[in-house]
Known about the structure:
- Helix content is 28%, strand content 21%.
- It is built from 9 helices and 15 strands.
- The chain has helices spanning 32-36, 45-56, 113-126, 160-163, 187-198, 222-233, 250-255, 267-272, 284-295; strands at residues 11-12, 27-30, 60-64, 84-87, 92-95, 104-108, 131-136, 140-142, 156-157, 175-181, 203-205, 212-216, 240-244, 258-261, 275-276.
- A hairpin with a 6-residue loop joins strand 11 and strand 12.
- Helix 2 packs parallel to helix 9 (284-295) and helix 3 crosses helix 5.
- The two termini are 37 Å apart.
Amino acid sequence: MRENDPVTSATRQPHPQGGAPTLRPRLIATDLDGTLLRDDKSVSPRTVAALAAAEDAGIEVFFVTGRPARWMNVVSDHVHGHGLAICGNGAAVVDLHGGPGAHRFVKVRELARENALDAVRLLRDAAPGTVYAVEQTYGFYQEPDYPKLHMEIPDQLAPAEELLAPDGPGADEPVLKILAYHPTVDPDAFLTLARLAIGERANVTRSSPSALLEISGPGVSKASTLALCCAERGISHEEVVAFGDMPNDVEMLTWAGRSYAMGNAHPDVVAAASGRTVANNEDGVAVVIEQLLAEQQ
Length: 297
């Protein structure tokens, strides 16, 4: 991840879709890691206050993250109103009201096991040495050589082909995404290679500074699931303000009527967003929310 030049305030740029949006914001969609959360995974008091003020002003706040539902305890105390979050890069919409360990899946957009097996086979051929983990609604499985990138114990260790077999472990649970890690390939080069190798069989992105890819069902992304949630509420993309920092945020930032790249954002994110704000450790999301609410007074 590249540290960009210092940014002292939120700035607007011409939107890639053309024209500056003028509609009053009705929904804020924010990524978590590297965006809303500080590097120590905390939500600052300033950000907590800004989120509450937005909800009080009638603006819905959606957390839109690559995290699985079981990792959402970092923001469970800051749920307002509807209490919904988009997890797994769009693979699930989760009701957080139950608190840690009691989340309810409202919508699941699974990765078919056949597509997942195709992705594993194609990427093994294109990038020998790739190792995999499988993320399901409740279970987490990995290959023996998959590194300990996550602070959890996998439910089972086995080759990906066994984990994804029709009669494999957790066969009664939907697969939300597979994780593909390579120990030596450049992260951006790995993403490009995987997208070319896998094609339309799955959606491939990344949110980690390491060569760790996240592979979801075809057409499943933060943007597409957010669009579904907005359509259910009668909210147009022009009424959405989005925040992000990594490649898995690009489609969402391009789709939203107004979008902001964090001061610590990946170059592709800076190019996709219509504006910029300061880094996550400087409360960049709160800076923009405060400005938006001031505009409405």
